[in-house]
Each structure stands twice: as structure tokens, then as C-alpha cells.
Amino acid sequence: MRITRSVAGRRHRTALVATTGLTVTALLLTGCSGSSDSDKGADADGNITLTVADFGQFGYKEAGLFEKYHELNPKITVKEDTTAEEKNYYPKLLQQLNSGSGLADVQGIEVGRIKEIVDTKADSFADLSKSIGVDEWVSWKAKQATAPNGSVIGAGTDIGPMSLCYNRELFEKAGLPTDRTEVAKLTEGGWDDFLALGEQYKKKAPAGTYFMDSASAMFNAVVSSSPEQYYDASGKPIYEKSASVQKGWDLAAEAASKKLTQGLAQFEDQWQAALRKSTIATVVCPAWMAGQISTYAGDANKGKWDITSAPGNTSANWGGSFLAVPKSGKNVAEASKLVAWLTAPEQQAAVFKAIGVFPSNQGAYELPDVKNATLPYFNNAPIGQIYADGAKSIPEAVLGPKDGVIKDSISTQINNMEQRGTSPDKAWDAAVRTIDKAIG
User: Fold this and answer.
1) What is the CA angle 126-130-132, rounded to 5?
2) Would you say 107 and 324 are in contact if contact means Cβ atoms under 8 Å apart?
3) Is the pLDDT at 348 greater than 50, yes or no?
4) What one-character DSSP code corresponds to residue 134?
5) DSSP 381
6) SS (HEC) of 307-325
7) Least enclosed by CB within 10 Å: which of 39, 132, 186, 352?
8) CB 13 within 8 A of CB 377
9) What angle do the packed helices 243-257 and 424-439 form, to 10 degrees?
10) Which residues are within 8 A (CB) of 425 and not within 5 positions of it... i.e. 6 or more apart?
11) Which strand (E) or helix (H) includes residue 285?
12) Is residue 131 within 8 Å of residue 337, measured between CB atoms?
């Protein structure tokens, strides 16, 4: 299994989205491309091979997009070089940028890395502002890849608008509503309401089950729903004083102390087994998480799960990536055209249909493959509508170069509170020591 785009080890499998049929309008909009003066990689016959280096599952192979691009542009062949885990991909990318060699024509960049790349390596990438429709993306996504001089070094691929996945069967056994609209009402006040719902669940919970899988996932959702997270606008780390970090930490500590969580590290073997055995009632659900649940819960649990909106009136984003074009490439112009095509609405809709990652290009939201999408596994939840609504309410957040390090360090200590009974004060102190050592 390939690992998707997350510093914290997010994983993904095909989500089996049901839609009204693949729209192909944009497939017809691209005329045949030829080599240009700025592209020096063509052979004697004008044929070009474009290389795309990425990590995990971007979905282009699954959606057949590289083959389609070749059909539209017969002189261009696209080859993908995929690294399974982003944590292995990124150090290699930095080495290649520093040495100026070994880079692909197109490079994937994870959202947890984009700030560091913008701050330190923006001059190494082509400005895509003239080749992509920057205004088509959700505004905060485009700004994440925009350098101070206005150049746009990455075109947004997917985003991870937050929702809540819940086990309808466990909710029913615990005497809770199972209708997604009613569940949403119970948590409309935010994450405090979510924990209150957890206490209701616990009163009549089936033996051996827990309200949530991981308090660290809830922490991440709380922080990600706020404009102020780990850094301020000047680039200074503020995680120790951040209101959203403190709120998320306090909620996580409360969940751990009240035994509302099974304390599982997401994506690991025990977490997968818990889904299969139906011992967890809720999972904080960015768009790509549905594929995880359906994969590991398995066919025996099809229809037992559902999806509703995330607690509160502000959504959060967890995950997402960009495609960038190194200036050092031999095929910069053609690579830029490929990036523009891959991230256009119709292609993003095709990827969503193929593997369930949600488009960052707003033009995709009204296309049938997105707007009318449902997930049969999740009681036919209208995910196109749920995720699009969530995407519209995600705040514009300040990103920092070490967001991933900070998040992972805090998540580790939340897990220690859950599994080892570490006190909140000791866990927080340990997180601060780790973070300060890592970020200097």
C-alpha cells in the first residue's frame, strides 16, 4: 500500500465514490502540445518524456490521466516516480534542490512542507501564476504556495476538509441518534459538544468499545479549524501561547482522563484491527479518511458507518499537496502545461472519483462527479456536498516551516496520556522539550 500525503503518516486507499459518470470536458480543452524554445528535452522527432516525482497516491495513475494526456498530446509521455512514504521523499527532494541535480520535471510537495519550500527554495521553482487559474483554487490554498514576490510555485492538488465519520450500529446500541442530520445537531456547538456526546455514548456503550479512536486526531482538527495555529504571521513559533493549541490540548486531556478514547495511533496495526472489530464509534474524518475506514473495517462493516459535518460551524483542513516545476528542468514549459491540466477542475474531479481525495480547485465542486458523489460504504453519505460545504468554511491559516514537527511531537504526548496515563503537565513539558530541540 502506498502512503498518502501527510507528514504524520496519513495513508489512503481507493474510496469507491459513486457518482453520475465521469465528466470529460477538460479532456477536450487541451490541444496537442509541441516542444517550445524553453524545452530542451525533446528528441530528434520532437518527442518529450515528462517525469513526475511524487509520494503516496496522487491518483493520476488510478484515474488514467497520464495515458489520457498522451492521447491528447502524442509527442509527450509522462512517467511517474512514486516514493511510498513522504517522510522518505522530502529529504531526498531537499538534497536534490541543494545539489541542483536529480529533480523531476514535476515535483509533488506536501502541505506540511510548502511553507519551508516557499521560504527557502522558491527561487528553484517556476512561477505558475500565468499558467494556472490561481483564482480557481480555494483562496487559502493558493496563498500557501505564493512567495512574497507574488510568484506561485505550486498548483494545488487536493485538500482535506473535515467531517465526522461515525459507526451507526454502535450509536444505535448506545441509544444515540443515527441520522446524520441529528448527529450534526448534537455537535453543532463545537468540540465541547463532541465530548459531551462521548459521555452520553459511554453511559450505554457496548462492552469493549470507545467513543473515539484517538484524541490526537481531535486535537489536530481543533487546531486546524483556527487561523492561529503554531506560528504567527511574522514566522515566529507561538504554539505555547496559541489559543487553538491550548484548546485542543485541554480537550485531548479531558478525553483521555474520561476514557473516551481507545488511545490508538492512527493507521497502525491496532487501529486497523479496531476498525475491523468495530470497537470505535467515531473517527475525525478529513476527506481522505473514508478510504482508510472502508479498507480496514472491511466488507463486513459496509453500511454500518456514516458521515456528517464536523463539530462546530468552522471546518478544518487536514492534508493536501501541490505540484511544482523546478526551473532546472529541461521541459519547464511543457511541465507547466501538464501541471495546469492535472489540476484543472475536470481532472481533479476524475481523481476524486478514482481515489476519493477532494479537489482544491473550486471549479470541480459543481461538476457531477463531485457535486453528486456519495459513498455507498457510508450509508450513501453525500460526500460531495459535505466536503464542499466544509471547504468553504475552512479559515485561512498561517503555516510555519516546522508545523509537521510540532504537530507530531504533541500527538506523541497525547498518545502517552491515553496509553500510559502520563499527566497533562508532564506530557506538555515533554512535548515542549522535543519541539524546541527540533526547531531550535
Assistant:
1) 90
2) yes
3) yes
4) G
5) B
6) EEECCCCCCCEEEEEEEEC
7) 186
8) no
9) 140
10) none
11) strand 280-286
12) yes
Pairing of strands 280-286, 210-212: parallel
Q: What is the rounded distance in angstroms from the CA atom of residue 272 to the CA atom of residue 214?
A: 13
Closest CA to 288 of 7, 10, 8: 10
Residue type, 74: P
Cell of 423: 499527566
How far is CA 110 from its chain centroid? 9
Looking at this protein, which amino acid is placed at residue 304? K
Q: Residue 392 is placed in which grid cell?
A: 468553504
**423 φ/ψ angles, rounded to the nearest 5 degrees:** -65, 150
Grid cell, residue 179, equals: 441520522
Nearest to 111 by CA among 78, 81, 137: 137
Residue 102 grid cell: 536529480
CA angle 290, 55, 129 (to 5 degrees): 95
Which pTM does this prediction carry? Answer: 0.84
Q: What does the alpha-carbon distance between residue 273 and residue 284 come to, in Å, rounded to a whole number? A: 17
Q: Looking up cell 456519495, which residue turns up?
A: 374
Helix, strand or coil, per DSSP, at residue 280: strand
Grid cell digits, residue 263: 488511545
Q: How many CB atoms lie within 10 A of CB 189?
A: 13
Cβ atoms within 10 Å of 267's Cβ, excluding its own: 18
**Residue 106: strand pairing partners:** 52
- State the pLDDT at residue 33: 46
